[in-house]
Amino acid sequence: MRKYASLLLFALLLNGCDDGDITVDQIDFETLTASSCTAENLLVYKLKSQESLILQLPEDTFTEDATAVDDPDIFNIDSNGNGSYRLVYRGYDGTIAGTDICNLIPPVTPRVIDEWYAKSGRIEITTSPTVTSNTTTNSTTITGYNHNIVIKNVTYAVNGVDVTVPEIKFGDFATTIENSLDLAFVAENADRCTSGQIYNFITSGAALTIDDVDASLIQNSATPLNAPRTAVISSTTNKLLYRVYNSTLSKDYFCKTTTPTTPTLRETWAGVDGVANVSGYIEVTTTTGGSNVFNHTVVLKNVTLAKGNSKFKLGDSFTLGTFSTIATP
Fold first, then answer.
1. Are 9 and 168 within 8 A, CB to CB?
2. Contact at 8 Å (CB) between 158 and 18?
3. The pLDDT of residue 85 is above 70
4. How far does Cα 105 stand from its chain's mean position?
5. How far apart are the first and last CA of the chain?
6. How does pLDDT run across 39-72, given as a tens digit for each residue?
7. Those residues with Cβ within 8 angstroms of residue 159's Cβ, 6 or more apart along the chain or in another chain
8. pTM check: above 0.85
9. How many CB atoms within 10 Å of residue 107?
């Protein structure tokens, strides 16, 4: 019964202005799937046969990041329902479809017979990532975000009288990420700058870098069999960053005294501080490649990357790449 309580008064109001056939369960939209229209503002709506519950919001309302625990994003329904955030319930005299909601020119039928705009209220949105797991590599991928919407202290004007509904559970609205994260690094693209930065890049516009590298990791001597050099990732040493850019990337971008202005940076994910031989650490295996040449293969072990409140795992073992150094005779 709890899920109906928040809309009970809303139902009674509708009963008072219609033919008396609307019941509480008929206007419970919480478990229905939300859809959306994209225009100057975003319409997120839920439909029943002859009813709709519609939220109008700016398109940037739903961010690609999780909200902190017990700290939802909050937006106000204001300006007597004429602001950027609006909530409206509609009842129709026939079957309604999503195209009827999204059409620029409203259809002649079905006809709206009930329309209730909220004049004030508080929209609370709790966002969490939608994650898929690879059981073979133990890596995870963020494919989108789920936004749970609750609207509190909603006030409607009914025949000149303000009536407040304590809580409306609008429910979940799912979004996909605008750009998926490309992690298809080619090992041979890796290299090291004279500054010590280790990097690899993807031409489409992504890069992995390690800065302030522990001096013991890269040495011009072969490592024993199955005994790589190791170092823990942290925010001060062995700083791992995954960056995504707005256009293509080349080798010429790296190892510059001044960071180039193009391509522009879109987002940055940072390696989570690790624990030695447990999580978030680097392995380097060094082999000889000829006279005074040493090949270094860099592998990231049980690494998690984070941006804001969102995280994903690179998996048990992720090869950043292989590069060579030449020992001075």
1. no
2. no
3. yes
4. 33
5. 81
6. 556 889 999 888 898 999 998 899 999 999 999 9
7. none
8. no
9. 13
